[in-house]
């Protein structure tokens, strides 16, 4: 009987449409203007620039505006054409853009923070401006009156902020690696819960209100998908970068998560596949495979006259194992491990073709 040869899945690669090169310093945020061939960018060079595509196919700045301090972040609402820009000096400036995107009119200034503004969000449904800063404060202001409505002090400075309009929950990611969920009211807030799964600081957050799933990226190179709506505490880990995750964006119509990293790569994750939750690492004083003692287990080392070994963990089952019992490496895409990770010998033998190949045809990467 002849063996059926299966074609190797083809990796889909994003296509570069255009490149805008003009800023003299780091571009901190850039957004596409919906239904327009346009881009808004803010930079450390203190400029706000609005780029519109000309008949030549090139992007040229229709607006070039210099701010009093470096622009650290921004939020743009296409419906109202309201642009909110956070700066290094703790100030947030708001502008209204004209219909042709050739003019912007100053609307209001908020003295929101004592240090750099790290994230700013305009919530149209609430008429709120939410912001976080290096002063470790989360603030929300009324966009109609400009008055501050509330303030919450975080344990570390915040680098990720998302808001759910339906429940009024704010998701706050900070430099301690913790994600905090707060319930915001008109003039107060209450702590809902906190959770921590990253070993590095949280660098980006992305919220999908339809599936009620929160994605967090970190300097530990990983992404975690938190199932908030399922109320089961499920957390799926995604490993596809070699450096800190810098940005996350979710496309609900295709159920794809786009992540970018300091490694220069963009990864597109297919979130329409069933993934397995990564196990918690188990504690043990000896290898859970061969029962050799770990180096801190002095009693067993003395009784067995054996030298203690270094502890490792299998990424598939979570068991504490020695190096000899976990010498194999494997990718496990269904668990989010797109790079080879340590697995124990028994788990390496049990990994199926489905577990190994499932997400490869749906993941693409592009490097600088």
TrEMBL record:
A single GO cellular-component term on record: early endosome
Keywords, alphabetical: Endosome, Metal-binding, Repeat, WD repeat, Zinc, Zinc-finger
Subcellular location: Early endosome
Superkingdom of origin: Eukaryota
GO MF term list: zinc ion binding
FYVE-type domain sequence ranges: 281-352
Primary site of residence: other
SUPFAM superfamilies named among the record's database cross-references: FYVE/PHD zinc finger, WD40 repeat-like
WD repeats: from-to residues: 20-51, 195-228, 238-272
GO biological process: positive regulation of fat cell differentiation
Protein name: WD repeat and FYVE domain-containing protein 2-like isoform X2
Organism: Salvelinus namaycush
Taxonomic path: Eukaryota, Metazoa, Chordata, Craniata, Vertebrata
Gene name of the encoded protein: LOC120058388
């Amino acid at each position: 009987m002849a063996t059926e040869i299966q074609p190797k899945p083809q990796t889909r690669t994003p296509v570069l449409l255009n490149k805008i090169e003009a800023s003299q310093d780091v571009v901190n945020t850039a957004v596409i203007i919906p239904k327009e061939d346009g881009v808004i960018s803010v930079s450390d060079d203190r400029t706000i620039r609005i780029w519109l595509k000309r008949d030549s196919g090139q992007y040229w700045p229709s607006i070039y505006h210099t701010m009093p301090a470096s622009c650290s972040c921004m939020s743009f609402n296409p419906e109202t054409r309201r642009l909110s820009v956070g700066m290094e000096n703790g100030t947030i400036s708001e502008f209204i853009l004209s219909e042709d995107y050739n003019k912007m009119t100053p609307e209001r200034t908020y003295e929101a923070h004592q240090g750099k503004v790290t994230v700013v969000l305009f919530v149209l449904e609430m008429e709120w401006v939410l912001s976080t800063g290096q002063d470790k404060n989360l603030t929300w202001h009324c966009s109609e009156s400009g008055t501050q409505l509330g303030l919450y002090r975080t344990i570390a400075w915040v680098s990720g902020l998302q808001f759910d309009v339906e429940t009024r929950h704010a998701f706050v990611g900070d430099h301690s690696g913790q994600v905090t969920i707060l319930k915001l009211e008109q003039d107060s807030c209450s702590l809902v819960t906190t959770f921590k799964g990253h070993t590095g600081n949280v660098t980006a957050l992305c919220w999908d209100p339809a599936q009620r799933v929160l994605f967090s990226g970190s300097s530990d190179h990983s992404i975690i998908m938190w199932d908030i709506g399922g109320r089961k505490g499920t957390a799926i880990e995604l490993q596809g970068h070699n450096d800190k995750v810098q940005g996350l964006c979710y496309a609900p119509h295709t159920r794809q998560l786009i992540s970018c990293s300091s490694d220069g790569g963009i990864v597109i994750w297919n979130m329409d596949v069933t993934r397995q939750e990564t196990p918690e690492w188990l504690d043990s004083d000896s290898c859970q495979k061969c029962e050799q003692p770990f180096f801190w287990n002095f009693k067993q080392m003395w009784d067995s006259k054996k030298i203690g070994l270094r502890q490792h963990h299998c990424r598939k089952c979570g068991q504490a194992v020695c190096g000899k019992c976990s010498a194999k490496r494997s990718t496990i895409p269904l668990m989010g491990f797109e790079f080879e990770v340590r697995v124990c010998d028994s788990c390496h033998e049990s990994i199926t073709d489905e577990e190994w190949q499932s997400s490869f045809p749906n993941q693409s990467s592009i490097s600088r």
